[in-house]
Specification:
Blueprint: H1 8-16, E1 31-34, H2 46-50, E2 52-55, H3 78-90
Antiparallel strand pairs: 1-2
InterPro entries: GH
Protein name: Beta-glucosidase 22
């Protein structure tokens, strides 16, 4: 068992470079593009005030339509979650 335990200096270095806990709140990914319409000068609601279009896909779907983001649905995005975890690991 003597070789199993790290000496104090090695243990302290290992502890300095580790995390005790990482909390991640991750729900979905959305894409945001400009959606400015100069003819709409009056502010109508918070979404139109932002002048952006939100979609769940970067490109058009096979049907040719872009699926608009609906915040009540919260679609799962496992690839986005994987990329975020890889980023945290690498940085």
């Amino acid at each position: 068992m003597g070789g199993y335990f790290l000496d104090e200096e090695e243990r302290e270095k290992t502890e300095e470079e580790s995390f005790d806990f990482i909390g991640v709140n991750y729900y979905t990914s959305i894409y945001v593009t400009d959606d400015i319409d100069p003819s709409e000068t009056a502010l109508q609601d918070y979404k139109k005030d932002m002048s952006v279009k939100t979609t769940v896909s970067r490109n058009e779907t096979p049907t040719g339509e872009v699926q608009e983001y609906n915040p009540t649905l919260f679609p799962d995005d496992p690839i986005g979650m994987l990329k975020m975890l890889e980023y945290l690991k690498d940085h």
